[in-house]
Amino acid sequence: MKKYIIMIKLILPVLAVLLSVAAYYGLEDSGKQKTTEHPYYVYLLLIVLALYLLFAIVSIFVKKIRERLVYKAPLAAGTIAFIMFLNTIITKTTLLPTLYFPSLDRIIGLLYEQRLFLLENVLSSLGLLITGFAWGASIGFLTGLALGYNKKVGYWLNPVTKIIGPIPTTAWIPLALSVFPTTHAANVFLIAFAVWFPVTLMTSSGIQSTSQVHFEVSSTLGASTLYKIIHVAIPSAMPSIFLGIFYGTVSSFATLMAVEMNGNSSGIGWYINWQKQVMMYDGVYAGLIIIAILCSLILTLLFKVRDRVLVWQKGVIKW
């Protein structure tokens, strides 16, 4: 009986793809959507089906992949079915305004036809994001370390952090554009600020949560202040530091979208704003999809790094 249930689960995505193709060609279009040169949605479905069948073949020989495939198959089928339902509502009926809800053919076609231009904008955004993130995470880590370890520094700096930290990053845009000599420098500062506060807060919290017994034992053994910071405080605070980095990553993406509208001529945030201004909402959705994928990939990579660094906490926080 268990084998039959597994087989049914594995077949579900295939049935969902076939049903989607049947709905695409079997139901009459509303005639309101702009037509595309190729059925890009069907092409995507066929690519997904080919990849799924490839993994299914590999899973015959690799148990780990087989278990993963069986677990994810119903979710994949449900996702395909939902997308089919959404595309059917958009292209086969007139329930939703076509201006704001373009067909999946248009969105996927734009992603393919403008792939090089989109790649240039993605690379521009990544360059800005990495620069701002590096500054924000570095300064945030040092600030949090000082706040958490040294009570005298915390006495003076903690009120300042509590006042300016919660202020939304976008509220600093007019001031940043006035103070910094270039728009790029202002944008780097704003992204760095978005990362700085959560990293500072979680680093400080992690160090303050370190048991005093650990510091007392290390002092008894003759450890210097630097040794206690590097070998006691920081390792103990690493789980909290990673949480701050995760929160900072999400905040940096939100800030990136806002700052790239400040006179930029490239970047995925600029692209989304430009497409919105010219009422090309297929480009808006395409940009949002790219942002979602990028953010998800970066967070997944950070979680992999966390699991490697914090081996004793592997799997405690999952993504």
The total strand number stands at 0
How far is the first residue's CA from the last residue's CA? 32 Å
Mean pLDDT: 87
Q: Enter the CATH topology name of the largest domain.
A: MetI-like fold
What characteristic shape results from the CA principal axes? flat
Number of domains: 2
Largest sheet: none
Give the tags.
single chain, 319 residues, mainly alpha, MetI-like fold
Characterization of this structure:
With 319 residues, the chain is an all-alpha fold. The protein has two domains: 100 residues; 199 residues, Orthogonal Bundle (MetI-like fold), CATH 1.10.3720. It is 78% helix and 0% strand. It has twelve helices and no strands. The longest helix is centred in the middle third of the chain and has 35 residues.
Concise overview:
The protein has 319 residues and is an all-alpha fold.
Q: What's the SSE blueprint?
A:
Layout (H helix, E strand, L loop, with lengths): L1 H25 L13 H20 L3 H30 L11 H10 L1 H35 L1 H14 L8 H7 L3 H26 L3 H9 L4 H35 L8 H10 L3 H29 L10
Helix pairs in contact: 1-2, 1-3, 2-3, 2-4, 4-12, 5-6, 5-8, 5-10, 5-11, 7-8, 8-10, 10-12, 11-12
